[in-house]
User: What shape does this take?
Amino acid sequence: MNKMSKKFPGKMNKISKNNFITYLLVLVLYIVIQVLLATGNVSSLMEGLLVPLCIYVMLAVSLNLTVGILGELSLGHAGFMCVGAFSGAFFSKCINGAMPDALRFIIALLIGALMAGIFGILIGIPVLRLKGDYLAIVTLAFGEIIKNLVNVMYIGRDGNGFHFSMKDFLSLNMEADGEVIVNGAQGITGTPHDANFTIGVVLIFLSLVIVLNLIHSRAGRAIMSIRDNRIAAESIGINITKYKLMAFSISAAIAGVAGVLYAHNLSTLTALPKNFGYNMSIMILVFVVLGGIGNIRGSIISAIVLTLLPELLRGLSDYRMLIYAIVLIVMMLFNWSPKANEWKEQVKEKYFSRRVSKGKGVK
Amino acid sequence: MSFISYLINGISLGSVYAIIALGYTMVYGIAKMLNFAHGDVIMVGAFTVFTIVSTLGLPPALGILVAIIVCTVFGITIERVAYKPLRNAASPLAVLITAIGVSYLLQNLALIIFGANTKSFTSVVAVKPLKLAEGNLVISGETIVTIIVGIAVMIILSLFISKAKAGQAMLAVAEDKGAAQLMGINVNKTIALTFAIGSALAAVAGVLLCSAYPSLTPYTGAMPGIKAFVAAVFGGIGSIPGAMIGGILLGIIEIFGKAYISSQMADAIVFAVLIIVLLVKPTGILGKKIQEKV
Assistant: This one.
């Protein structure tokens, strides 16, 4: 299932080659899009989709760390994105003007990552004791709770400092000059628009460096050993809790960074079921599974394809999401069904028999 | 008095959750998969009744019957086309994602046929509200019918599982597919039957849900579906009495949370209770503890 884990850890050459292809893929895509942008071949609609594309790629890569490398099904990834988005936007809103923009944005990204990471650890400690579908449902529950709490949170600031309330705007008891920063279901308005495509790609690179280096480090191999056989891993002295939490919180932190990027791409940040609900978490999971569980490059490609697909089908108006659903089902059946795999093997043997016998010997 | 009225409303909502959760838990028990499209089958049932009763003007009883048939056919078809080929897939996640695809498919199909605007569902219940304690406690007809149907479904289903041959076959397949096959049980048919029963129950739940909360959109089934999933896990997924208890408890917690704590945070309270229960008892209230073998 997982290409990386099958490889012998000693063969650094092959691993770094594999990683290099992943970095190159992102770089080539970036250059192609920049060229298309410069020559004016990108519609304004597609241009607006470039930053969300980066966000989805980061989310898919980070979720793959939890699902593919750690082997735990998480349905609450959007919750971490929500934490990152709101803490980053909160910081930017508070500081706005008091700091150079670039520095403020970098600190906002760090704060988003830190907060989401902390939430990852706080949620991970109880959640990672559970297994399988129970873990999935609890992560889903946490994601929904985060979204729900953000929707009833009011934070304002006046001369006396910060005011906090869980009830409504009036119970903040602010003075006349007070400014509401987080306004319950209306969220945060007026976040500075810092995000752009280049920053998005830089952040993708950073997350790839973190994730790929983690996977091929000693810690990464420990994490994968937990995935493959928890009891065996435990019996050779691997600290299960530590490594599980490590993978889970790093994954959450990257999702938090994606959230900060998301918050700084929109003027109004609200926690809706659409952007931070379980639907979003499920969509990211779809990217991961379709791209190949544990395959980072696959996550990038499927996130790009599945984000662009509904836009490319826009000409079909109402039918586009229907076709999206059918394409998703057919692709899943084609990729995962044992019968389809058998058929693919047969076709491979028939037409590429030489390469198959040379390449993969032992399964 | 308001406490009793909340309690009754909670049991009523909980009965709907329990009926949906039964479908979830049966499918999980037998096919070991989370059927994310289950919530959308509820929506299909509700739309079928809506078409027959409100658009065509036919009697509600016929509408419910047709809805049950339509949902059963949908359930069997979905299982056959989308889930069966992936039963032996390398990763259990594959079928989960396919179920999500089916969920998108059903929602968008309904979106194209019926449009995105909210339809107001005419209640199919003709029972008069019950007035108790000199009119201080009014129980709506929908609530009464929902609770009665809920109890009836649970009793019939329990009898079916424990007494009928097909029910026993379902238990056997859930326990051990290979051994069941060796005993001469047709595994494919049994799994199809489970999906059929689960979907028929979803149709009933859809009608009851939309009679009590009469707004109908293509996304109506999604949230009750998730809540019922929570209820199934709450009670111990795979366990039929667990789904009933989980569903009813969840309904009561949700209504009480809305009434006494905060209506905006009702969902958060439901999920928080779930988390606490799972942390204390990691396999749900009635779930079996599985010993891991080395």
Summary: The domain at 3-8+45-359 of chain A is CATH 1.10.3470 (ABC transporter involved in vitamin B12 uptake, BtuC). Chain A has 15 helices and five strands.
